[in-house]
């Protein structure tokens, strides 16, 4: 077991992500419940979901699975912030929405508290002081035990820590960034900041959305489904579209990495997950199986330690601190997405 940052909460090296439970992935509730129970039996005690996953259906499924186990032995996390319908106030990190969304998540999950509640993405429309105040009140009310952020850039993590200190607020205790052998940008800034402030790091997509699963290649990937679920800037091209030059380059790199794994006597999944777990900032890596078979391929990873020569070879193929595709950051500041924020209006 690892400690989740400085919270004192002990978590398994693998965290069961539930994004694929429900309409986004596996619509068979009983099958998904079985995946949860198998993960728990295998020693995973950490489950992560979000209100937005399949419009709440994922939380409902996780709640069904936990109804027949000892809830006190499970570290349960969910997230808030992504749009839940067409109500303009049913998203973001305002006190109004956080308070309502937390109650809704508790109902769907069938529990009276969350071990970890995370802001899914930065909300430029809301003062971080308001967000911290609302989350702190949930801690004091016993609704949540700790709270964290997801896909926040380093400067916003630092700002939130500064505001918490100056205003006497409870503070973010974890960060959930994208991180894999193909997406290493977090190593440059987010990880050092998280370590400096004692945050637990819980990387999402350690298999790079399927690129490192061993199953991606021409004719083998359901690109439309993958691209529908993963965020993308307009005009950036499909994340798995091989007509995009950077994706062709990514496939070449995956081929090279697969050769490294084979030479080391490992599966691609084992090497990919072991690589993420090797970083000292990481508390747990989130896996997101859609099927029981997907889960089984991941369970051996915590027992794998990569030799220095293997890690050096990975560094040669993908240099530390770099993203093979710069678009794989998971969130883009409005100043980069909205042209109106970069251009003067009216006459000059």
UniProtKB/TrEMBL annotation:
<dbReference type="InterPro" id="IPR036812">
    <property type="entry name" value="NAD(P)_OxRdtase_dom_sf"/>
</dbReference>
<feature type="domain" description="NADP-dependent oxidoreductase">
    <location>
        <begin position="13"/>
        <end position="318"/>
    </location>
</feature>
<dbReference type="Pfam" id="PF00248">
    <property type="entry name" value="Aldo_ket_red"/>
</dbReference>
<dbReference type="InterPro" id="IPR050523">
    <property type="entry name" value="AKR_Detox_Biosynth"/>
</dbReference>
<protein>
    <submittedName>
        <fullName>Aldo/keto reductase</fullName>
    </submittedName>
</protein>
<dbReference type="InterPro" id="IPR023210">
    <property type="entry name" value="NADP_OxRdtase_dom"/>
</dbReference>
<dbReference type="GO" id="GO:0005829">
    <property type="term" value="C:cytosol"/>
</dbReference>
<dbReference type="GO" id="GO:0016491">
    <property type="term" value="F:oxidoreductase activity"/>
</dbReference>
<dbReference type="InterPro" id="IPR020471">
    <property type="entry name" value="AKR"/>
</dbReference>
<keyword id="KW-0560">Oxidoreductase</keyword>
């Amino acid at each position: 077991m690892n400690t989740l940052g400085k919270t004192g909460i002990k978590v398994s090296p693998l965290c069961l992500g539930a994004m694929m439970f429900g309409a986004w992935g596996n619509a068979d509730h009983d099958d998904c419940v079985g995946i949860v129970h198998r993960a728990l039996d295998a020693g995973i005690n950490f489950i992560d979901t979000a209100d937005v996953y399949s419009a709440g259906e994922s939380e409902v499924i996780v709640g069904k699975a936990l109804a027949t186990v000892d809830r006190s032995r499970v570290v349960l996390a969910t997230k808030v912030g992504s749009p839940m319908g067409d109500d303009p106030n049913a998203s973001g990190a305002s006190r109004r929405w956080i308070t309502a969304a937390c109650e809704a998540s508790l109902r769907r999950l069938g529990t009276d508290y969350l071990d970890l509640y995370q802001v899914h993405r930065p909300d430029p429309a809301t003062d971080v002081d308001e967000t911290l105040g609302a989350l702190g009140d949930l801690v004091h009310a016993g609704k949540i035990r700790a709270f964290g952020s997801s896909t926040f850039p380093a400067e916003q993590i630092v700002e939130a820590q500064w505001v918490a200190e100056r205003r006497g607020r409870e503070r973010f205790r974890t960060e959930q960034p994208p991180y894999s052998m193909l997406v290493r940008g977090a190593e440059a800034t987010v990880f050092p900041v998280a370590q400096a402030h004692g945050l637990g790091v819980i990387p999402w997509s350690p298999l790079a959305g399927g690129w490192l699963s061993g199953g991606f290649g021409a004719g083998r990937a359901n690109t439309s489904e993958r691209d529908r679920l993963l965020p993308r800037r307009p005009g950036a091209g499909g994340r798995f579209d091989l007509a995009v030059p950077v994706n062709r380059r990514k496939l070449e790199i995956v081929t090279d990495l697969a050769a490294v794994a084979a030479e080391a006597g490992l599966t691609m999944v084992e090497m990919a997950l072991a690589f993420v777990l090797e970083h000292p900032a990481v508390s747990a890596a989130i896996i997101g199986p859609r099927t029981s078979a997907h889960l089984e391929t991941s369970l051996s990873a915590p027992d794998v330690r990569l030799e220095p020569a293997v890690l050096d070879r990975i560094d040669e193929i993908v240099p530390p601190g770099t993203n093979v595709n710069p678009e794989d950051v998971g969130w883009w500041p409005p100043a980069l997405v909205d042209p109106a924020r970069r251009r003067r209006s009216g006459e000059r």
